[in-house]
Amino acid sequence: MAKFSEMIAATRTYLDEVSPKSWTDFEVKREVNNAYGDLITAVIQVFEDYYLRRIDFNTVAGQQEYVVADGLPNDVYKIKRVEMNANVVSNPDSYYRAAPININNYRGSIVNQNLGSSAYPFYYTYGFDASFAIGFLPIPKISNTNGVRFWYIYRSPVLINDGTNNVDDEINIPYADKYASLIPLYASGVLLRKGQQEEPTAARYLEEFDKGKQDMMDELKQRNVDDAAVIMDSIGMNTDFSMVDLYY
Q: Burial letters for 22-54: b for 16+ Cβ neighbours within 10 Å, e otherwise?
């Protein structure tokens, strides 16, 4: 896999500056991370499940909202799916897909303990990163170990290169050995443009980056050709109408 240090070295090669003179290490690392973020965004546009994770966390009787301290991840970028089980001990396989709601559109009090039965649970979210929180309706009546299954697209962290602590992060994109080389093009192009030293060269580097990024996206779009492309159901509801038992 390509490493952060390799991207820094390659960027300085494009800049024809092996050691800091016109551009500091901070500036080079910043633009390498910006380029990396641009590629991650491109991957998510066409293959977001590359960054898909699942975690399970416990529910507590009477507790409606859950935060990072309760087991939620602090790197949520997108929520893909939430499932909840009202009684794991009695029905270990009875997980129901929870449907997202906007709390502003809910007419009653969301903290009402007497909402009654529902064919499936609802959830709402607010906050971001360490302040991310999720709440459930109806409020759980029973404490459950791993009562919630949570699938999400995680936010990739900033790349770190620390020789003192022997840390050198890997470039985490599909086909990194092929497409990580785009990162120094972007980084050097932006740095040259900001320095107003080589505008034509900077423009060429950025153009090559954009073309390479598009090639990567086109390749990722064709990763699964098992069948004809179709529109997927994304409503998020439980559409198995044969089920007769209720959530509670």
A: ebeeebbbbbbbebbbbbbebbbebbeeebeee
Report how far residue 89's alpha carbon sits from residue 97's, in angstroms, rounded to the nearest whole number. 18
Instruction: Give yes or no: residues 53 and 149 share one domain.
Output: yes
pTM of the model: 0.82
d(CA 149, CA 54): 7
Give the torsion through C-alpha atoms of 19, 23, 29, 34, to 10 deg. Answer: -150
88 plus 113 within the same structural domain: yes
pLDDT tens for 154-174 read 999 999 987 777 889 999 999
Task: Give the whole-angstrom CA distance, residue 229 versus residue 135.
Answer: 35
Phi-psi region of 71 (alpha: psi -120 to 50; beta: other; left: phi over 0): left
Q: How many domains does the chain have?
A: 2
Structure token digits, residue 154: 């995680």
Looking at the fold, whether 85 and 172 belong to one and the same domain comes out as no
Hey, how many other C-beta atoms are within 10 angstroms of the C-beta on 110? 16
- Is the same domain home to 36 and 56? no
| Domain match, 70 and 132 both | yes
> Of the candidates 111, 132, 154, which is a domain's last residue?
154
Q: What are phi and psi of 67, to 5 degrees?
A: -125, -175
